[in-house]
Amino acid sequence: MSLRIVVTVKYVPDATGDRHFADDLTVDRDDVDGLLSELDEYAVEQALQISENFDDDVEVTVLTVGPEDAKDALRKALSMGADKAIHVEDDDLHGTDAIGTSLVLAKAIEKAGFDLVVSGMASTDGTGGIVPALVAERLGVPQVTLLSEVSVGDGVVTGRRDGDAATEQLEAQLPALISVTDRSGEARYPSFKGIMAAKKKPLEAWDLSDLDIAADEVGLEGAWTKVEAAAARPARTAGTIVKDEGDGGKQLAAFLAERKFI
Amino acid sequence: MAEVLVYVDHVDGAVRKPTLELLTLARRIGEPVAVALGAGAADTAAALAEHGAVKVLTDDASEYAEYLVVPKVEALQAAYEAVSPAAVLVPSSAEGKEIAARLALRIGSGVITDAVDLEAGDEGPVATQSVFAASFTTKSRVVKGIPVITVKPNSVAVGAAPAAGAVEALAVSFSEMATGTKLTARTPRESTGRPELTEAAIVVSGGRGVNGAENFPIIEALADSLGAAVGASRAAVDAGWYPHTNQVGQTGKSVSPQLYIANGISGAIQHRAGMQTSKTIVAVNKDAEAPIFELVDYGVVGDLFDVVPQLTEEINTRKG
Question: Which range of residues forms the domain containing residue B79?
């Protein structure tokens, strides 16, 4: 039995850049370099490992929803080893919230066809971590999320979820959606050969009409949440810095006592 | 007065602190109605009543412990349909966010995650979020449906406000979807006796400068002198010196304690994302140029192997 894997990835502003908001209170994507979200690299990696360990044909498709530049994220995933890519791009998508994003992803995943969806644990810009659960809800398939270990075989996905209170072993029938954490295994670097091969791999472009989604279901106007204000956090007032001359620990204790922590 | 649904995070009936914070915030919007699920659900009632719950809806079906997330979504949906609340509040744990998101989609509502504050507004609750590694603060509102909002721990000081807390059984029937992901084994985390990292009032963290797992007891001793939780930077966790469950940062836990003490941590964006909203920040680092010193209220440039044990000893002496 062959296996069709769709990996959802996001193109995000570089966290080490000067991230800020545009005038319409959406994330400014023009002034900061973008890249494949680090947390989605783990998803690509796990999809490739599942593919390598599976004893029948596997097709790994990477899917992103985002502006023109988001193709960079897809190319990175293709150069890591994914087989093909789908880019959903439409001007009406600007300002889409998590609920709207899950709609677009779910429709695109259904159109692509899938046995397993693999997502990262969260994006590094929004950090909400809810899109995988939302996509599973929309697709009506089991959610097997936040896995640090995963394996697929015989129509079943199993994995280990390290929760706050306990470590859980999970199991679900395919088709299913999984999300993987940064503990799932170091993502591979694209090889030179991989980068060259990626240029010849198929990259399809879809817009909202391809997915039968109306413009007012997505975008800033279609969002079910609204950011009303965004302000830079005031700079912290400069603190006291002392050089340890043998009594640094005692001085620090005095500070903590003054602040009533002792 | 409008009712506000509050999802209860508890362990066998012991209510965790973030839920009490939610009750405190819920009272700004309306009358809290708590929803407690699973083993020991009814035992939560006293603590919830003490903090303002007018009603406690409970169901102790075994499905909550046997399947992932979805049974809890369906119970919260049943409570939502029974109560018709003005808002639904859920603790911002990984599971809490998944529950909130799926509920929101089912009831056709917008969802806001990781709020750090919540106030009543003319057009519904306004949530404050801290974004881009806490370099920006946003105010957001749900504009469709009944607001579903998850709130991070340590967002508000818990206030008592005794209310009836009448326990009522919640009738839940599970769909086929609820049993899609089976929990085949569960190993509770071993207790360290220290506070939970995200809930602690004080967090003491160690980074690359700790230079080995064998040196972490120095950090733990300082934490214990203050009754604090222990955190670790990604560098320390990746090196295998401390468990990942204690990682503070972008890909670990995000903490917001009253006091954060960073030891041997340079303060890269990865780490700052997880601790920048701490009220008071203190750092010990050998490198005077380390970016962590840009954030601190008090910093000591020095060797942590000299400074930290001296600090611990001084604290223990002062506490007598």
Answer: 3-179
